[in-house]
UniProtKB/TrEMBL annotation:
Gene3D superfamilies assigned to the protein according to its UniProt record, in alphabetical order: 3.30.530.20
Residue ranges constituting the Activator of Hsp90 ATPase homologue 1/2-like C-terminal domain according to the UniProt record: 20-155
InterPro entries: ASHA1/2-like_C (IPR013538), START-like_dom_sf (IPR023393)
Protein name listed in UniProt: Uncharacterized protein YndB with AHSA1/START domain
Organism: Silvibacterium bohemicum
Protein family membership: Belongs to the AHA1 family.
Pfam families according to UniProt: AHSA1
Record-linked CDD domains: SRPBCC_CalC_Aha1-like_7 (cd08900)
Length: 157
């Protein structure tokens, strides 16, 4: 039996938002707001997006890459659960991602929301296991940086 390789990685991204912790927390807990910054993108069509924002609740995202992308027509599924939620302070999720039905990563992501003089400091800690053929830690970190920029745009509305 061939051994499958795995790459473990942890990265931390810190961002400041000129909004209260309550407003930032709502961008995670409100399904419509989270869909706008977390699920929607010009490069793919969202086929399914559901969140049950409570400890033990699930999060499900399924999308298909559009023509003109590196993977036209390919389906991505992100399936996760909420492990811990402290209103306006902390969100911890565990999730897996699959490409056309083949799981390629597992992640534990912690979001800390810290009150600051200018609003909220967010600390995103991503701990990942990337399996054979995965996107890898550098691409995942770039993806989370993009998502947090989209979160900033959502909060600006």
């Amino acid at each position: 039996m061939a051994e499958q390789s795995v790459i473990h990685s942890t990265f931390v991204i810190e961002r400041s938002f000129p909004k209260t912790p309550e407003q930032v927390f709502t961008a995670f807990s409100d399904p419509a707001k989270k869909r706008r910054w977390f699920a929607e993108d010009e490069g793919h069509d969202v086929e399914e997006f559901e969140i049950d924002f409570k400890v033990g609740g699930n999060q499900h995202l399924q999308y298909r890459f559009r023509a003109g992308t590196p993977f036209p027509g390919v389906e991505i599924v992100s399936q996760g659960s909420y492990l811990e939620i402290v209103p306006d302070r902390l969100i911890v999720t565990a999730s897996t991602m699959a490409l056309d039905g083949r799981r390629f990563s597992a992640s534990l992501v912690t979001f800390e929301l810290l009150p600051a003089n200018t609003g909220t400091d967010l600390i995103c800690t991503h701990q990942g296991a990337f399996f054979e053929g995965a996107d890898g830690p550098q691409i995942r970190e770039a993806g989370w940086r993009t998502l947090l920029s989209k979160l900033a745009a959502e909060l600006a509305h």
